[in-house]
User: Fold this.
Amino acid sequence: MAVSTTILAGILLFFLLEKLVIWHHCHDEICEVHGKLGHSSCLAMRFTILSTVSSSPAAFLTSFPLGVAAALAVFAHEIPQKVSVSQSNPAR
Assistant:
């Protein structure tokens, strides 16, 4: 029960944070509504890279099958993310 309550609280916290900060972006050069979120996007990307880089070797040090599973999970996460980013920002 405590784990599910903690997960629910985390989801609600990040939902409220997103609504409070308006954590979205525009494709317009000048946007009065959303402002500039370059620093927060950069910070989020650095955290993602840090967690990926540290989790894969730690999983392999624990056991080889766990490392393979972690590597597959990273690939399963990164490929759709990169495809969605490349489709939302086509080359001009």
Notes: The chain has a mean pLDDT of 77. The helical segments are 2-21, 38-62, 64-88. DSSP finds three helices and no strands in the chain.
